Amino acid sequence: MAKRDYYEVLGIKKNASSDEIKKSYRRLAMKHHPDRNTEDSDAEGKFKEVKEAYEVLSDSDKRAAYDQFGHDGVRGGPPGGGFSAEGFGDIFGDVFGDIFGANRGSRSQVFRGADLGYELRLDLEKAVSGDSVTIEVPTQVTCEECRGSGAEKGSEPVKCMTCGGTGQVRMQQGFFAIQQTCPACKGAGTVITNPCRNCHGRGRISKAKRLSVKVPQGVEDGDRIRLSGEGEAGRNGGPPGDLYVEIRVSPHKIFHRHGADLSCEVPISFGTAALGGDIELPTLDGHVSLKIPAGTQSGKKFRLRGKGVTTVRDRRQGDLFARVAVETPINLTVEQESFLRRFDDSISAGGEKHSPRAGGWLDTVRRFFERVSQ
What we know:
By secondary structure, this protein is of the alpha+beta class. It has helices at 6-10, 18-32, 43-57, 60-69, 85-100, 124-129, 270-275, 334-350, 356-373; strands spanning 116-122, 131-142, 158-159, 168-173, 176-181, 190-191, 204-215, 224-227, 243-249, 256-258, 261-269, 277-283, 286-292, 301-304, 320-327.
């Protein structure tokens, strides 16, 4: 039977690039390999045909001869003999090596340093105003004695004999070829015969690093500040990781924060609530005077505009919400108790005139029980 055109076998055009040839070969070789098509008697022949076409068209000289003279131009070339597990292993390695970044012949692996986290606790005042804070972070830094090589001064790491300096070893099982990190050198491609006495061959040492952290104004609980390159040192010359400083704002004794707004509870006396008056109210900027109208009920909220804070995301000043709590007097004297009883009697005699909420509540209760009894 006459041989098919090699371009037709690979399903490509005559002006196809080398990348297109290789891509088509990978796809067809995987498709027709006999070990994957045990019930197809034609699979081996198709695989041989694909392999032969690729071996000619992937070689620039053979391809030129084929384009000019056809099959006669490469008759002395590859006979398209039987397939081998090694051949399919090359396909597998090319395809999956590209996916997992384990190409054959790769040099020693370079590892980026690990990212670190640090919890920075601030009080509300510092979180609002911003500050520069010095912290100490335990981390792994490059050994200064060996400059990260892990070898003692005057010596150098030597090529790993297990992987030949590639950092990878190739495991062949049937037609599967898998690349793995070299167990002898851990992917470095080199081994240390004379380890550094300072870092014991690790290339890094543990150290508490002092850093100055610029805390921007208005940070909130849970915000993170990234310090690029301040994480752990990399290995085999890799770049360092980053340090993430997470802000934790401690609870305040007076204020609760809600974004840019603040809130607080202010106790006032019964007399001030009933008669009205001025009270002194704390803010983060100092004290202000708050006017309490006569007849103020417990739980009433007052809004002081512009007495809140700003945030990192919004520089507009928030508000302060003050909730008053009428304080019940305790530890009364006999005279005070007598006075309050007379006062309470006079209030009760006035009915809803003095206690409109109580009167309305009693009416609601009365109507409720009337409906229940019907």
